Amino acid sequence: MLNSKFIYVILFCLSLGSLLGYSQKPNVIIVMADDMGYGDLGAHGNPLIKTPNLDNLSKESVSFDNFYVSPVCAPTRASLLTGRYNIRTGVFDTYSGGAIMATEEETIAEIFKDHGYATGIFGKWHLGDSYPSRPQDQGFEESVWHLSGGIGQVGDVFNYYKGNTSYFDPVLFRNGEVFESSGYCSDVYTDELISFVENNDDKQFLAYLSFNAPHTPLQVPEVYYEQYKSLEFDSDYFEKNGQYVHEMNEKNKEDARKVYAMVSNIDDNVGRLISSLKKKNIYDNTIIIFMTDNGPQQYRYVGGYRGLKGQVREGGIHVPFYLKNVKNQKNTNAIEAPAAHIDVLPTLAELCGIELSEQLNLDGISFAKSLSENKQLKERPLFFEWQRSYPEKYRNMAVLDNGYKLIGNTKSHNESNQFELYNLNIDPFESNDISEENSEIVQKLQSKLDDWYDDIMSSEHIKKPPRTIIGSPNETHTILNRNDARGMQLIWADEQMYVRWDLNIIKKGNYKIICHFRKPIPDPGELIIRLGTQNFSKKITANNIESATYENVLLNEGEVALEGWYYSGWGQKHYTPFYIELIQL
């Protein structure tokens, strides 16, 4: 039987929690679409696409007229989750080992989990496929996700061979366990998120709904494609409204029909999600963010902006961003000051009453007071870059400061530095390069690019890139795929390209190693695996082998590069593994 003193303590704690507003802390849902551009919404002036749910969400939200992300997906996701420029996290590309985020980075999921939130991710991760860089290693208690940067890409070894059906019934991971889902990928993720919400009646949650659509391959249920298959494109409509329009060939038009169909499916799923929140009577206490990770990959309407995914022009980095706040925050005025992916973490933390440690060394700032008090967002420089390797100073690099945007366009080491300068306040579509008549502004912004470049390139995680850990009880069966492999810039599926995986073996012991090849190898030969100073060779006498297994190999502790190759004789064609399994025995 409880004594009166103990009962008093319980009642006091409950009362204190109520006074501090613990029971009223908002839920958070971040919805991100993949390769969906600024112009892929009815709310942004596109009369061809049907997005009623997102259009309505934009009316209930604070919309950011000038919101920016990185030119490609993995860097954007690293910055979103950490509040830091992606280079600091070890992420510099989308594959070739450049999309592995250091486990030492503290993510929004880890921070919110430490403050009592349930955390979940549903969809695309793209920040490392093996321990310790998986979503469950980075703070997500519930995770349903696919390998690599996209379902069916070379790193997604479970769906790669499904070809043009990979988006349907995809093989996914649930909390580290492989399972075959049922349905179209975007529908599956939304179903999983709705279930997650329903299973968290007793605590606040932070959820990340990360669609891999409308990224290629452009696969979509027929019922959605039917809505657009006869769609015609009238560029005159946009030209009459003074907007820049990309030239579209027939392939571009067909791609746009499929993209619009995929976006309409996303719109329906956002509608389903909102309906479920209202049914549970938690919609008014849920912050919802909708955004995309970069501009479109294909030519189509982009709201007048020039450029595509991968470019630091506005079309590549200027994206939709809506934030629907909780019920007592009624300000829905559009915010014109530039904001970026690095600002999301500090903003959500402030909105949810979470104090952040200065040791996080965030690059982003909170715009929470711009939402609640209509305060002007602080102006500061924002920086953007991307190429298929570590950053080369000025190459596809930009800085935005006080309305001026400097773009570095050095194409190679042999060319002199070339810059373009735009005043986005009067020229948002980057149509008039004013660099020649504004040399002082160019020099000032170039100096800021220099300082930023030197700063990020001195970051520990780019000087010493993250490694996959082997021998941990957290992952006894590791899949080393092409997405996380390092080597040449364009590894992808090439069978003759040199590849390696950077490992940290923390437990000396016996392992099974299975090497898989993309296609059957026709001739007998020899397979060699090298881990640092350890070499393991295996004679192959059969024809048309698809894999080869080392049953019991003693591996030593240490940081090593795993390399492998198969050859049928000196001077003959050689083959590198498509992916490798390492299994603790």
Automatic annotation (TrEMBL):
Transmembrane segments: none annotated. SUPFAM superfamilies: Alkaline phosphatase-like (SSF53649). PROSITE patterns: SULFATASE_1. Keywords: Calcium, Hydrolase, Metal-binding. It comes from the Bacteria. InterPro entries: Alkaline_phosphatase_core_sf, Sulfatase, Sulfatase_CS, Sulfatase_N. Residues 26-354 form the Sulfatase N-terminal domain. Belongs to the sulfatase family. This is Arylsulfatase.
